[in-house]
Recover the amino acids of this structure.
């Protein structure tokens, strides 16, 4: 049923969610790279991003790279809703499709924590890192388990989804659900027109103004025209997804907030201040929805953090693992630098 | 039939379009303010913006303002497709609805030129100015009739729609047309769900990140929540429009290019270089789709132009006439300054 044969699954059982609902037979799919050492102190947690699977994180994992499986035990947990971990598309009735519960990033991190502690007996994590919603999960790890995480490096993501980011996502959601075939999530066939509209909206946000101005889609990606690029890079990507899965992750994104939990009761500055981990926070200089300014404010409230913008015209996309050599190398160097700090 | 009683109409007859098609009984609706002097040398042309009508331009017209009807004869031509000049919603069969022809900004300016010369006998225009698509029409005036226009001030608009801007609009179009009620433009009732989706997409683009971060929608506009703002300021605005009219103007916008005509044959730099008018080009510092960078490039190819960014966190919206007192005052001062130059 699942096309990806190369991952493990941690059974969460009846997993209680922040909403009060229970995810029956919850499944956290993950993949590990490298070997946990005998002291169990070489673990790295590297969560996935929106529309990403564990395989999409792999370009930054490898011998000689910062995330080196020869040295570290790297755990990549799949985000709920991504079609590999519990998602609307793979959960039995009645929690499938539109019946799938809202899941927060807090819920995701609680599941990660169970995996890390119950399955692997890890008490201290060397590094949590991730791109985009993976960055948001990284911030969550730092705030929710401040004594457990030595270092964090979130790139192209924020500790709390900004209002503007929320509205950008709202536009995508409205586009997808304008398709009558969406049927409030109770469709039999995928709402293809809505998925295409979602992709087309996203195509304006993901790259930067300069990405289009400089014709990066043509020069670096080989798409002859903008229309080719929108169809080939955006529509085709999102048409591979289940619409309910996309909307489930979108909800998680819109509601991401490291302080939206009993530990901080909405006190965002307190939550940022509680992150003890040594941190490099890396926005893309040209990101349209996770702009530098939001991270700069966050870093200002973190006791042990450095702001290190990614110099790129690829916009948000620049942070995507392996998207382009220069940006990937920059991210890798920063990860290496951070891992050297004692 | 038309709710606005306060404008005149210039009959264009069988108006030949750039596409080769003919707009039968073409109508250019316009309003004038002030009196044309005997030398016919005190005219200002001030075209409308996307989703705007002549009345929406009025906050910058008034006694003591730069655009002073005591001194100038101000002509505000309504853009084709805006529901006042010839538009899908007001043109007889078979050119109504989806049968309406594509109209370029070049076509718009040719119609303005006929109005200005045939109706008023004006040979020299003191100033052409406008916001957004009005700015794009302003650039067109400068390039298409360089010997006729003394000054131009385009704000929050470009001489050519950038690729990124094109893609942003493509997202809005996909959202609107994902609604089955759109029926390829052959609807009887307006596609309300599609119009709402279009509005929701637009809500992410029109203001800036900082506009939302600083809660300007609440502090300055009185909307308690983001949802209130999206519904009250965006959905309600676009639900007043005919969907075909919006899509007709969107096509004009996507294809705006001062060099896409026999004068310049696509040589954009040549067209910019031909603009003799003394120019102030004013991008909003926080505009997401008409960014400063695009105007800076354009000004670099104009022989007589100054780049003067509008310092605002209102994003593109900051340029909207009367949207907020500070930005409107800044625009007014620049217009005054430009009109003083001999």
């Amino acid at each position: 049923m699942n096309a990806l044969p190369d991952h493990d699954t941690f059974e969460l059982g009846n997993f209680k969610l922040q909403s009060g609902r229970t995810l029956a037979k919850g499944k956290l799919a993950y993949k590990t790279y490298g070997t946990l050492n005998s002291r169990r102190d070489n673990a790295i947690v590297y969560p996935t991003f929106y529309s990403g699977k564990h395989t999409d994180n792999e370009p930054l994992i490898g011998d000689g790279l910062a995330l080196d499986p020869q040295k570290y035990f790297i755990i990549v947990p799949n985000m709920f809703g991504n079609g590999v971990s519990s998602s609307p598309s793979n959960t039995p009735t009645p929690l499938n499709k539109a019946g799938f519960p809202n899941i927060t990033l807090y819920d995701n991190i609680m599941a990660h924590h169970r995996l890390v502690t119950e399955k692997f007996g890890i008490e201290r994590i060397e590094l949590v890192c991730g791109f985009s919603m993976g960055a948001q999960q990284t911030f969550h790890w730092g705030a929710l388990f401040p004594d457990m995480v030595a270092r964090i490096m979130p790139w192209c993501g924020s500790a709390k989804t900004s209002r503007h980011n929320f509205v950008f996502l709202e536009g995508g959601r409205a586009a997808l659900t304008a398709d009558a075939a969406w049927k409030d999530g109770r469709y039999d066939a995928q709402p293809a027109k809505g998925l295409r509209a979602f992709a087309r909206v996203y195509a304006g946000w993901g790259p930067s103004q300069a990405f289009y101005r400089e014709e990066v889609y043509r020069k670096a990606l080989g798409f002859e025209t903008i229309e080719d690029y929108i169809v080939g890079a955006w529509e085709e990507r999102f048409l591979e997804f289940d619409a309910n899965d996309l909307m489930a992750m979108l909800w998680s994104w819109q509601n991401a907030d490291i302080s939206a939990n009993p530990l901080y009761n909405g006190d965002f500055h307190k939550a940022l201040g509680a992150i003890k981990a040594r941190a490099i926070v890396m926005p893309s200089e040209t990101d349209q929805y996770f702009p530098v300014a939001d991270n700069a404010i966050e870093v200002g409230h973190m006791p042990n953090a450095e702001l290190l913008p990614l110099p790129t015209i690829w916009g948000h996309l620049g942070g995507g693992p392996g998207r382009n050599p220069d940006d990937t190398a920059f991210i890798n160097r920063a990860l290496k630098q951070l891992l050297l700090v004692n």
Summary: The mean pLDDT of chain B is 97.
